[in-house]
Amino acid sequence: MGNRRGLGLGFIFVLAFLFSTTFTCLGDGNASVICSEKERLALLKFKESVEDACGMLSSWVGNDCCLWEGIHCDKTVEGLDVRGYSGCFLDSNEVNPSLAELSHLKHLDLSANNFHKSRIPKFIGSLKQLSYLNLSYADFQGIIPPHIGNLSNLKVLDISSYEDGLMADDMAWTSGLSSLEHLELNSVYLGGAQNTDMLFYMIPSLKVLSLSWCSLSNADFGPLLNSSRILPHIIRLDLGFNYFEGPLPVFFQNMSSLSFLDLSSSNLSLAWNLANMLSMIPSLSELHLSGCGLDNIHLSSPHLNFSRLSNIQHLVLSENLIEGAFPSVLMNMSSIRVLDLSTNMLSSLAPLMPKLLDLDLSYNQLIGPIPTFHMNLSKLDLSFNQLKGPFPESIGNLTALTYLNLDSNRLTGPIPTSLGRLVSLQSVRVSSNLLNGSIPVSIGQLSKLQYLDFSNNSLEGVVSEAHFANLSMLKYLDASSNTKLTFNVSCDWMPPFQLVVLDLSSCNIVNGFPEWLRNQRKLGWVALSKASISGQLPTWLRKMPIIPRLDLSHNKLNGPLMNLPNGETYGRFIILPVLLLENNLFSGNIPRSLCRRTDLEYLDLSRNRLTGGIPNCLENLQKLYTMILSSNRLSGVIPSSIALNSLYWLKLNDNYFVGELPRELGNLHNLSILDVGDNKLSGNIPEWIGVKLTSLVVLRLHKNNFTGRIPESLCKAANLQTLDVAHNNLKGPIPHCLGELSAMINNSGSGEVGYYLGNDGIVEEVMKGVDLKYTTTWHMVFDMDLSSNQLVGEIPVEITALSMLVALNLSNNHLRGNIPHTIGDMVKLFSLDLSGNELSGGIPPSIAALTFLSHLNLSHNHLSGRIPTGNQLQTLTDPSVYEGNKDLCGSPLPKNCPNHKDPTPTTTIKKKHEAVVEQIKVWLFYVDVICGFATGFWGVIGVLLFKKQWRQKLFMFAEETMDKIYVAVVVRVVKITRGREVA
């Protein structure tokens, strides 16, 4: 999409140049003409209706509007040119109808502005003197009004759109444009529109027709495909990126004047007559066949003999399936000046083609060293290949070179000093290679250089003023990710350039904050992250224009944030407005001046020493997607003013916030990340979190003072993939419905979050018993941490349905019962911690099925039986995993198990039940005996205690009985003795 916008905007400037012979220097040479009061007031009303941040209309003052910039007069106002440029544009909800008063307008250009998806005004059709109308890329939406067909004097019409912008239902209105020569409808949806074929034969004067990205197909042209009824006057025809297929239409045979043809992304697999038919167009000099599915077989086929296209000078075959060696058929096309074979699968470079001026072989599979090219080459793009070897000194022989791109290869060695001889160079890109050594001082002689990128290499040495001596045109400088490279310029250095982009991240900047930046007034992007900068922000920085994208993170900057750039922004920049100040030593309060940056979309002040509360004026940042204030010393309650509807990520963790979560956060329907962990928040977990925050992906309430139960409403958070409520005072059971969190079952969470978080997004989670920080991989982590609370009851078996979970931590609660026997269904578990509970029974054998498990803690429970073996469990040899369970046995514990097979969970439960029943029977027997004994004992003894006569009779009976027994025993003994003597 970005490439399409860039091409479209670029073509706007081309159009402006083509028609500059008619409207040169609008506003000049009109001193003798004074516009009417009616026209002046109409223009002032238009000015009042737009937001003009760049001051494009700042000259619109005074009584004579013919002297205003963008206005051309010839007795009356005939030209209005207020097209946007270089990130500057007018901003309005609609085109003010006051322009209808300019009835003599011949030239109207409102392109590249922002009219916020409003409709193209119908009054445009009343400006019947118009010969030039450009409304392209101005963010219009809806159906093109047919009233434009009233403009019979129109010669140039461009209403190209962004994707999902403009559309047409009937193109019959174009028949009224009898004078039209140039028509562009790029990205206007024409699929199914009636009378589309009239574009080709109802406008006899048409020479340029551009219909790319219009969703056209063969059906939209009907009989015209096989008809020769086509005007031969068309010079440029762009039908690229539509849905054409099959043979080439017959009408191309009669287009004898055609010089430019774009059929990119058409399915021409059946067009074997392509070269034959195109050879009938001798004037054809530029041909685009990008993304047409062409491969080596097509190129070598006699039906596609490109060598017959002897007049082609500009050939684009990018995004096809061409592989291997450079196609031999192209070697014979001596007429080629510009050749684009990017995004194919070529492995070898092109041979010397003496007339070639522009060669693009980026995004291929080229190997080997960079060869020697001929001296006429002006543009060379070999980026994103696998080229090896040194950056050749011979590059200095390409004296005509203006553009050089060698990004993302494997080039080694130093940057050649001969590069300084290429005095025509405007752009040098050699990022993401293996280059080393110092940057040659000769670079400083390239007076036309605008773009310089040495980033992500291993360059070293010192960069000084001499490296920039004559770089007066330099706008883009990127030397980031060269950790041994040092920037050492004097504090009073006055650079000769005005940069728009500066990136020196991961370099070494000496002498503190760069003083030379105070003279740079056009900065849109400044990145000085990890640059070893220390000290306070200088006071002069406060008066600098606001820099839309400012990254000073990971340094040793200290002091207050009062000196951040706070002046008027220079222009508008088509970049994500970002302020990154994390990992410094900033102190004091968050400054209220920050609230002036109303366009800010990404704010990170984390890991500093900021104190105080969050200022309420942050509610002014209505475009903010990401707010990160974590790891500071902020305090007080979380204000409701930060409940910005635009927020996708809110990270306030590791501070000293108190109180409850503001209910206003429930209005953030786009919120995907909510992290308020490691604070002193209290109260219950709000019910509205699961009900209203339907986009929530990460919820982190870790280590606060939340009380009450885990609300069942959390089960409605269908996108939730990380739930961390650990280290609070939560009570009650674990809700069974947590097993219904669909994102943790089938990975159905949000995929949009990464865009708003960027690659620097950090989500902290507890896994393997320690705090881990996930950056670029956070979206792949599915985690549930309910540990260190006061939860009771059993572990719900439903939780084992969360098959996407990577980590489950239920430790340090009061959970009872058995570990669910289906725990093995959680096939992606990497970490499982159930320690510090009151779990009982055996360890389920299914736990051995967790092949990714590398951290397990079941310690300090009441588990029993044999420890399962097999698979990943064999690697968990630390006995501490199971300590505190005295009835466990088996490896890795020293306690051996009996030599019998481990019972299944069902058998174990049955035997345990039988044992309990037997134990109850034994106890009942003992109770029965004791009761009988007590009854008999106290039944007799109790009576004797209270009946004296009974006691006397009992003792007399006992005495008499004992005497009888004594006599009987004596007699028996005597008899036995006598018997032995006789024997």
Describe this structure in words.
- With 983 residues, the chain is of the alpha/beta class.
- Among the domains are: 285-364, Ribonuclease Inhibitor (Leucine-rich repeat, LRR (right-handed beta-alpha superhelix), Alpha-Beta Horseshoe); 947-983.
- It is 14% helix and 21% strand.
- Strand 8 (182-184), helix 3 and strand 9 form a beta-alpha-beta unit.
- The longest helix has 42 residues, at 905-946.
- The radius of gyration is 42 Å and the shape is globular.
Q: What is the compact description of this entry?
A:
This protein has 983 residues and is of the alpha/beta class. InterPro entries: Leu-rich_rpt, Leu-rich_rpt_typical-subtyp, LRR_dom_sf, LRR_N_plant-typ, RLP23-like.
Q: Key terms for this structure?
A:
alpha/beta; 32-stranded mixed beta sheet; 14-stranded parallel beta sheet; 983 residues; 21% strand; 59 strands; disordered N terminus; Leucine-rich repeat, LRR (right-handed beta-alpha superhelix)
Major sheet description: 32 strands, mixed
| Coarse structural class | alpha/beta
What is the second-level CATH architecture of the domain at 285-364? Answer: Alpha-Beta Horseshoe
Which residues sit in consecutive blocks of at least 5 with pLDDT less than 50? 1-31, 750-763, 765-778, 902-911
- Rounded mean pLDDT is 85
Tell me the helix content. Answer: 10-25%
CATH homology superfamily of the domain at 285-364: Ribonuclease Inhibitor
Subcellular location: Cell membrane
Family: Belongs to the RLP family.
InterPro entries: Leu-rich_rpt, Leu-rich_rpt_typical-subtyp, LRR_dom_sf, LRR_N_plant-typ, RLP23-like
Signal peptide: 1-27
